[in-house]
Every structure is written in structure tokens, then in C-alpha cells.
Amino acid sequence: MTYQDNIAKAQQLIGSHPGTWDGINAESVARMKLQNRFNTGLDIAKYTAGVMRRDMAAYDLDPANYTQSLGCWHGFIGQQKMIAIKKHFGTTKQKYLYLSGWMVAALRSDFGPLPDQSMHEKTSVPALIEELYTFLKQADARELGLMFRDLDKARESGNAVEAQRLTHAIDNYETHVVPIIADIDAGFGNAEATYLLAKKMIEAGACALQIENQVSDEKQCGHQDGKVTVPHEDFLAKVRACRYAFLELGVDDGIIVTRTDSLGAGLTKQIAVSKEPGDIGDQYNSFLDCEEIDPATAKNGDVILNRDGKLLRPKRLPSNLFQFREGTGADRCVLDCITSLQNGADLLWIETEKPHIEQIASMVDRIREVIPNAKLVYNNSPSFNWTLNFRQQVYDAWVEAGKDVSAYDRSRLMSVDYDDTDLGREADDRIRTFQKDAAARAGIFHHLITLPTYHTAALSTDNLAKTYFGEEGMLGYVEGVQRKEIRQGIACVKHQNMSGSDIGDDHKDYFAGEAALKAGGVHNTMNQFAA
Predict the structure, then answer these.
(1) Is 221 labeled as catalytic in the residue annotation?
(2) Under a CB-based contact definition with an 8 Å cutoff, are residues 285 and 305 in contact?
(3) What are the binding residues for Mg(2+)?
(4) CA dist 435 to 97, 255, 296, 323, Å?
(5) Which of the four pLDDT bands, split at 50, 70 and 90, describes residue 226?
(6) Minimal CA–CA distance to 378: which of 422, 347, 338, 403?
(7) Domain ranges for the chain
(8) Dist. CA 504–CA 378, nearest whole Å
């Protein structure tokens, strides 16, 4: 409904309670309703699932329509990100949030900082989703509140044209609420545990769940060693559990992102169940590192496979884990992805050890031979040394092309000495266009950085501490923070407004009228930033 429609509907409701609701103002009701567009997390999940589905369809038509996100570990961080996006680009289209299990473990656990091994409280994940959307909804309320105040001023000054412009802007307001791709790790237990957690995450507002094929109790960060995968049927049971959770809650177009860690995972905890040669269990087991044995030499406790009339003993480590053959990671990734898409997944995530477009594309090309519209979510990870990786890629390309590289030492390409060189500039150009190029060549629909705000918080705090506690003193804060906030138009320079003080004043007006004791009077020091 339009702004005026909302006012008219509220007035009709008030009028149905003659004499008892006369103190309620219809336009105030309309404003509060518009400032709280989403009443529940399920409202958010349904809305954002639709947004994401439309974006996926747009990408299928043109890979230039790829989407992006940054990982956020606090509601305020996510809020400021979306406010900045609207300020700089005028729209939130194709911009999402990512919720990283790594950052939940490192920053949001009651146990304190933890490694990314699913040791944090599972409830902290839906709690962060709810927190993120609480802050995004407050960003809507704040921005709309400012528009309402401007509308009142335009009316008071008799500026009908400005009042009409603002009313149109209110009617066409774009929310800060965007899709969140939320990390459910390996499901925090069995399929039932996955289902229960998925429900909590969806109820909090998540329209997209990202689940990985590692063993829950052996889960590792995708960029660390020691990863252990599970057979496909075990993983698919968790994928189905997520789909059931979406359907039960009425989010019929919820998105499931299946992540394979097989490229870097050389171990499995289980031998897959196989009922006949060539089935999915048999394919999984075919990657095991085995040795042929004679039944007479079998040892107590051996696990033995029968393949093509041969008896094979998978290599088992002292940890009781089984080992895959070297060099099978890419083949296992391709099988993981095809199987996931054939069993209800919507998007894929292939965790790689470096940002190399052709490496990713070599697997996606094979997947698309079976499923032509296969699409990826890709981790532009801070675990990669982007500068070094791309300088190495340029160096190697130059060598292959026969170009003279005598001015460069490949073992020290990270050196600042190479920043202002042809090689350094070409590497930076490749980094600059990586997302666009990978979207076109490697089927990447969504690019995210998992941990960026973890690093920016550390970097900005280090810079402030160095100056404020040094000789600059208070100038360290003023020059390094506040002056930049003012000149760059950072919304939270008026931190009282950002925290909701003006919204509270509006409510006092609604509730108490002239008797309201408001915070935003002439003595509010935030007025120093009015200019």
C-alpha cells in the first residue's frame, strides 16, 4: 500500500473504536508500520528468498549479474555495510550479507575465541541472524524517520512540490533488508540436529543455508588441514533435512548451498554403503587408497572391499580414518557437486586453496556437462595471500609466453619493491577484475569475503591505538576518525541518531504529544554536526 493508503486504513480502524482511540494519530500509525515492514523472521526469509531467486534467474541470463557479500560478525557491522552501499550506489540490489561460522566461533561464543571446528554454541548462529536483521530493520526505521521529518518540514513551509517528492520516495522506499547466506557448518550433529538448527536459522530470517560435507565432530576450517568428509548419502540426508525445514515453515523457495571440501580433504571416517557396482556409495569408495590383498594375509580387524573380483584393503590411519588416493580431490569435488544438485541443492560452493579462475572453471565445466545451469558461491577468502598468488600467476604466465622475467625473483614476489612494476600492476588488474572474470568463466553467481570485517576492525583499531596513545593524543582520533566521518558523510558520526534517539523522540511525540520530554533539543551536542 502507498503511504496515503496506510494512513487511510489506520484512520478507518481508529474510527471503528469511537471515543476510545481518539488519542491515536492515523499518520503516526502508518509511519510506525512502514518503519517495521517485516513483523517476523519468516517474513524476512520469504521476502529475501524471492530476491535471491530473481537474482539467480538474472545471472542465468547474463553472468554480469553476479552478486556479492561481505561477512559480518555483528548487527552494527551489517547495518553500516548496507547503509554505506545505499549511500554510494543508491541501491542494495545484488548485495547480500554473509554469516561466517568462523567469525561466530572466533567472536560470538561464550567460550571466548575458538577455532572454526563447530565447538561454539549452535544457538549463537540463529541469534546472530536475528541480530543482523534487527539492525537492518532499525536502519530502515532511522532513514524513513528522517524522511518523515523532512516531509513535516516541507508541509510546514508550504512546499507542496517537495512534500509530493518525499511522499513518492516513501512509497518507493528500498529496504536495507537483504538476503543472508548463513553458515550452518556441517549441521552440528546428525540429520535431525541439522533440521532443528535449520529451523531456528530460518525462523530468524535466513533464506539461504550453506552446509558442508565434512564430518560434524571432525569439522575443520576449509583452509586448514585435517578435513574429513562423509559419504554422499550421509550428506544428502542433511541437505534433505534443510529442505524439510524450509518447507515446514512455508519458505518454499529457500536456497540450499552445498559446500564440498573434497579438494583439500584427504580423509574419510566411513566406508560408504554400496548395494551394487557403480552406485553412489561405490563411486565414493572407488577413491579410497587401497592395496590388493590375499585372503590368507588378511589381518584381524581389516576392512576389505570386493571390487572386480579383487579383494582390496583401504589404508587406515592410527586415527581410524581412511585415506583417499592422492590427486583425486577434483574428481571427488565434481561428483559431490553433481550429486548435490541432483538431490535438492540450489547452489554449489567449492572450497579451493587459491583464487585461480581456470582451476575453478575446470571443475565447473565438468559439472555443467551434466547440469548446464550449475552455479557457484565462491569464497574470496582472506586466507589467500591475494597479492602473492596473483603475482605468481602473472610471473608463470609470462614465463610460459616466453617473456623476459629476469627483473623478478619469484621467491620474493610479495616484496614492496614490485608494487610499482609491470608485473605488480598486471597482478592488481587481475585481482580487480577477478569477480567479473570468474562470474563469466567459472559460473560464480555469488562472490563473498568470509572474514573481511574481522580484519577491518583489527586494522582500524590498530591505527587508532597507534596515534591516540602516541604523541598525536586526541588528534589521533579527530584526524583519523571524526574528521573523516564528517567529510565522508558517515551516518554514525551522529551516533545518538544512529542508535535510535530520534526514533525514540518521534515515539514520545506520538505517545505523549506536547508533554513529551525529548532528547533532540537545542542542547543536544549532536547539533554540532548539523552542518
Answers:
(1) yes
(2) yes
(3) 183
(4) 17, 22, 57, 34
(5) low
(6) 347
(7) 37-288+324-450, 494-530
(8) 41
Nearest Cα to Cα of residue 72 among 452, 481, 482: 452
CATH superfamily of 37-288+324-450: Phosphoenolpyruvate-binding domains (3.20.20.60)
> Confidence band (pLDDT; 50, 70, 90) for 225?
low
The single-letter code of the amino acid at 320 is N
499-505's contacts with Cβ under 8 Å and 24+ in sequence apart are 500/138, 500/141, 500/142, 501/526, 502/142, 502/145, 502/146, 502/149, 503/35, 503/138, 503/141, 503/142, 503/145
CA distances from 323 to 229, 234, 299, 314, 351 (A): 11, 18, 18, 7, 19
Choosing from 221, 242, 290, 333, the catalytic residue is 221
Residues 6+ apart with CB under 8 A from 519: 496, 501, 504, 505
From the list 516, 496, 498, the residue with the least C-alpha distance to 507 is 516
pLDDT (0 to 100) of residue 505: 86
- The predicted pLDDT at position 184 comes to 96
Three cell numbers written together for 399:
614465463
Cross-strand partners of 209: 182, 256
Long-range contacts, stretch 89-95, CB < 8 angstroms, 24+ apart: 91/174, 92/174, 92/175, 92/176, 92/178, 94/55, 94/65, 94/66, 94/67, 94/68, 95/67, 95/68, 95/69, 95/178
Q: Which three cell numbers stand for residue 113?
A: 575465541
**Each residue's pLDDT tens digit, 466-503:** 999 999 999 999 999 999 999 999 898 888 888 888 88
As annotated, the binding site includes 183
Cell 536475528 belongs to which residue? 130
CB 136 within 8 A of CB 99: no
Nearest to 246 by CA among 193, 216, 211, 209: 209
Distances (CA, A) of 386 to 76, 263, 308, 392, 468: 28, 19, 46, 10, 31
Intra-chain end-to-end CA distance of the chain, in Å: 35
pTM score of the predicted model = 0.93
Whether the Cβ atoms of residue 268 and residue 229 lie closer than 8 Å to each other:
yes
Residue 263 CA to residue 376 CA, distance in Å, equals 15
Residue 219 clears pLDDT 70, i.e. is over it: no
Average pLDDT for 207-228:
76
